[in-house]
Write a structure and sequence with these properties.
Helix content is 17%, strand content 32%. By secondary structure, it is α+β, with helices and mostly antiparallel strands. The protein has one domain. Strand 2 and strand 3 form a beta hairpin.
Length: 183
């Protein structure tokens, strides 16, 4: 589900892995998921990262993701290096994006229906993103985005705020890590 590149083991040192977050930032970890370094995505060089471990898991959360995470709009597993490292997919990061409002194809005149449709189109159209399934009853899409294109998906899912943080874009209800088993 996350991008993981493994460096070969040299001179008895544990292999290093690069895990790509939904923001496009890559975190270099050792075999025990301890953070060695962070390679920020283009244009994100100034974004600080908050790193912590709890219950045998390691988390790296860019500061601009803290508010949507705290609001419950982002799944914490999107920043859990242990979970991301255990669910590697070659084709990219797999997420489920839930939208506000009416299910597509159903008539709705409520406030925000157009912005939700625009956001859905922007998310689906972000570089390299493929819709694997439309989950109509949940008003959600199961998506795969190539590792190299994740910063574009992040920009489609979020909106910059004046103070430098981000919030989910209008029309986004929640974003989950797709935890379906790898095949």
């Amino acid at each position: 589900m996350a991008s993981v590149e493994v460096d070969t083991v040299a001179a008895g040192r544990p292999a290093q892995r690069r895990i790509t977050l939904i923001t496009g930032d890559r975190v270099v970890v050792d075999a025990r998921h301890r953070v060695i370094s962070v390679e920020r995505a283009a244009g994100r060089e100034h974004i600080p990262m908050h790193t912590w471990s709890a219950g045998g898991r390691t988390y790296v959360v860019p500061i601009d993701a803290r508010q949507p995470l705290a609001d419950g709009r982002l799944d914490q597993r999107l920043f859990d290096l242990t979970a991301l490292g255990e669910s590697v997919r070659e084709d990219g990061l797999r997420v489920i994006v839930g939208y506000n409002g009416a299910t597509p194809g159903r008539a709705s005149e409520h406030t925000g229906a157009r912005s939700t449709a625009e956001t859905r189109a922007r998310v689906r159209g972000s570089d390299g993103t493929a819709v694997r399934h439309t989950l109509r009853t949940l008003n959600a899409d199961a998506l795969t985005t190539p590792h190299a294109d994740l910063s574009g998906l992040w920009k489609a899912l979020t909106h910059a705020r004046a103070e430098g943080s981000r919030t989910t874009a209008s029309g986004i209800a929640r974003v989950w890590l797709d935890g379906t088993p790898c095949r």
